[in-house]
């Protein structure tokens, strides 16, 4: 999971694709939404958008209500639109 959400961009997508075969992987991806690092939150948001699981919408909307950084908010809005 560390590679899938981590700062190492080289292995991130490969790790995400491998993990996507697991059931309920969206729950693990949602853990990245609580990171103190903006880049990890954005990575988790983008991954959740690609997973396109409506069960992630409550977590994304909750973060949208409290997130202050514009880059993260933009990613959240895009993800919510993608999943709906």
From TrEMBL:
InterPro entries assigned to the protein according to its UniProt record, in alphabetical order: ARM-like, ARM-type_fold
Origin: domain of life: Bacteria
Gene3D superfamilies found in the cross-reference section: Leucine-rich Repeat Variant (1.25.10.10)
Protein name (database record): HEAT repeat domain-containing protein
The species this protein was found in: Proteus mirabilis
